[in-house]
Amino acid sequence: MLDFQKIFRCYILPGLVNSQLAFVGIYCLLIYHSEVSQKEIKLPSFAYSLMIANSLAGLTKFVPDDSFYELRLLLDYAQLIMALPLITTEFLITHQIFPEEISGIPVYIGFTALMLFIIFEYKRQDLTDLTIILSLFLYASTGIFHQPMAIVGSIFFSVGYFSYKRNEGVCLRNQNYFNLCMAVFGFLSVVAFEPEKLLSIPSDMSLL
Q1: Phi first, then psi: what are they for 68, rounded to 5°?
Q2: Is 22 in contact with 55 (CB distance < 8 Å)?
Q3: pTM, two decimal places
Q4: Cβ(157)–Cβ(181) below 8 Å
Q5: What's the CA gap between 84 and 48, in Å, rounded?
Q6: What would the pLDDT profile of 89-100 be if each residue is shown by its tens digit?
Q7: pLDDT tens for residues 121-165?
Q8: Which residues contact 61 (CB under 8 A, 6 or more apart)?
Q9: Across the chain, how many H-helices and E-strands are there?
Q10: Is the pLDDT of residue 67 over 80?
Q11: With contact defined as beta carbons under 8 Å apart, do 166 and 129 qualify?
């Protein structure tokens, strides 16, 4: 007898979540590139590209021998440790909070943690926490004074990280739930850069 709960948990849910994350990542990348950065490649472009790469790698879970497991581990951690700092740093630069060298501190710490993970295959929880907490603090505090949408995005990322991801270790058992939060954060982050432009209603569509 088929176990439909297991089929949903192991196959349907991961497929839907990774497809959603890929769609959101592609949307964010295209909108950011065309509407926000004016076709310049900036830090969030790499963040949204990591979301896309991680979601596509997640679909390799359905390969019978699971030969892509190591790739999924790498891209999952790369998305976790780099996407938020990249977006945060560009957000700080956009609003001229600190000089660019200071604004890049979350990226420097996150990149260091990622390199240690790649070279030694060891996840430094202290560096991971430092990167995430510092980035969340800077992103949300900047949002308080400049764009409240960033605060909402920070909340979704915080829920995903502290509820599902932080104590996951090097396995991927809560990846689906975190990626759902990541998709919402990604969408809110691109809107936070240009809310007036991206949330505006064209005059011919207005009901007024």
Answers
A1: -100, 15
A2: yes
A3: 0.89
A4: yes
A5: 10
A6: 999 999 999 999
A7: 888 899 999 999 999 999 999 999 999 999 999 999 999 999 988
A8: 14, 68, 72
A9: 11, 0
A10: no
A11: yes
Say what percent of the chain tops pLDDT 70: 85
CA distance 205 to 3: 48
Distance, CA of 43 to CA of 103 (rounded, Å): 12
How much is the mean pLDDT over the chain? 87
Q: How many CB atoms lie within 10 A of CB 32?
A: 25
CA dist 145 and 196 (Å) reads 16
- Orientation of helix 84-94 relative to helix 105-120, angle to 10°: 160
Task: List the single range of 8-12, 26-30, 123-127, 136-140 with lowest mean pLDDT.
Answer: 8-12
Q: Please report the DSSP string for 90-159 in residue order.
A: HHHHHTT-S-HHHHTHHHHHHHHHHHHHHHH----HHHHHHHHHHHHHHHHHHHHHH-THHHHHHHHHHH
Residue type, 72: R
Q: How far apart, in Å, do the first and last CA atoms of the chain sit?
A: 57
Distance CA 20, CA 185 (A): 13
Q: Provide the pLDDT for residue 2.
A: 56
